Structure of Asparaginase:
Amino acid sequence: MVEDGAEVVAHVVRGGVVESVHRGHLVVLAPDGSVLLRRGEPGRTFFPRSSLKLVQAVAMLRSGLGLDGELLALACASHSGEPDHLAGVRRILAGAGLDEADLKNTPALPLDAEAATAWVVAGNKPARLTQNCSGKHAAMLATCVAAGWDRETYLEPTHPLQRVIRETVAELTGDGPAHVTVDGCGAPLFSCTPTGLARAFARIATAPAGTPEHRVATAVRAHPWWLGGTGRFPTRLIESAPELIAKDGAEGVFAAALPDGGALAVKIADGSPRPLPPVVTAALESLGVVGLGDVGKVAVLGHGEPVGEVEAVL
């Protein structure tokens, strides 16, 4: 999505001078679904990456997954691989009579630097358990057990689970997935548009009690640490605004929504996550979310000290 109408959404300011710019595609939807703010071309097809995990979790609940609370938040997570995250993944698997040997996601070290160091010092190598999508994959396997589906082929796009996920993506986003590829973790990835992603988050955030969508929203709001980890932007954002649901994705993707249906989605054209905190918090301010404090601050450093910051341009 780099030369496709993206507009400047952030300036990187050092010493009072704009040193770099980030372009992107952004949409903010008002509670009635109308477009409140837009930058770039948010109607263009893109891959929402891990921001889609909340939608995938809705599909899994519809198919019989029996998770709620922190473990459902972990199923939606790009977790940091901290010890409780790993224990939670094992709990999801054990509840379905499985263990980490059943996982088929891509091995990786924990995202959290301290957790990764501890993992390696303990003599371990990159593992499926410690990869940030292991909660989603554990939930996918648990869904297969609950529905009586084959576990060995759960990553095939034609698998019943992936067909349900594709149908749910189309329903909640309003976009028929035009493209299917493989995400970094090995799971099928379905395309939509930034506007469709915002629409899906709005539908999850406003769903009636007892629905799969409401269960996902409740878990994410109540357990933001399980969604990300210590110091992570999505975690800090929801902790500062507990009414939110929010999720980041690789290559500069982010989506969020409020209980009244106000929602946003952004894709940074160069794939960098650096401008997301100021851009997302500025977009949320247009929806009336205030009091986010330093959550949206990204400092520009000189000799280890702040000499500027990344500023939203909306």
